[in-house]
Amino acid sequence: MSISIAIVEDEKNYNNALKKVINYQDDMKVAAQFFNGKDALKNLPDISPDVVMMDIQLQDMLGIEIIEKLRKEMPETQFIMCTSFEDDEKIFNSLKAGAMGYLIKGESMDKILSSIRDVYNGGAPMSLSIARRVLNHFERKLPESKDFDELTEREKEILELLSQGLLYKEIADQKFITIDTVKKHVGNIYRKLHVSNKVEAINKFNHFKN
């Protein structure tokens, strides 16, 4: 089954280049292209793709706003920010809004394709420079242990496996549960730890362990 992808990018050449490379792959296809935020906001919920490649700075609105408005309507869709911006505020606002990946334009197409597959399988792909900023940020924020105490034993087990780099399917197979059940547990983990993505959850988990 191929991964369906929507591209939201107002730079036409880059949008079309992404489409061409993605459609060349055997395991993915572009379900829709959008060149402005208004069209994306209106049509994305009906398409409900597996992955959205989202530009942050569209001409008519911020990609972050689109994610904030659509996240609840599209719980199964994963958003990857693809942008030329590397400032901390945009990175963290994107992650808080619900983006599961953050790539810098200029990454190789191989990296972009592998990131699409990664996020589809439960990963949180980021450009190296972005990942360093995120890790440095969370090293400065000390979480409260009472958040961790609220997790059930099963949630702690799943968080441990996530921290080991296992994908949702691998966790489901190991625990003899469905991928949907894993996703529900992960959602509960995020809520109880007051985080919005896997990177934050793992950082908190590592802090509690130490």
UniProtKB/TrEMBL annotation:
Ranges for domain HTH luxR-type: 144-209
List of residues that carry 4-aspartylphosphate: D55
A biological-process GO annotation: regulation of DNA-templated transcription
Domain of life assignment: Bacteria
Domain Response regulatory: 4-120
Nucleotidyltransferase is among the record's keywords: no
Keyword field: DNA-binding, Phosphoprotein
Family matches, as PROSITE patterns: HTH_LUXR_2, RESPONSE_REGULATORY
The keyword Ion transport appears for this protein: no
Protein name, entry field: LuxR family transcriptional regulator
Protein source organism: Chryseobacterium luteum
Organism taxonomic ancestry: Bacteria, Pseudomonadati, Bacteroidota, Flavobacteriia, Flavobacteriales
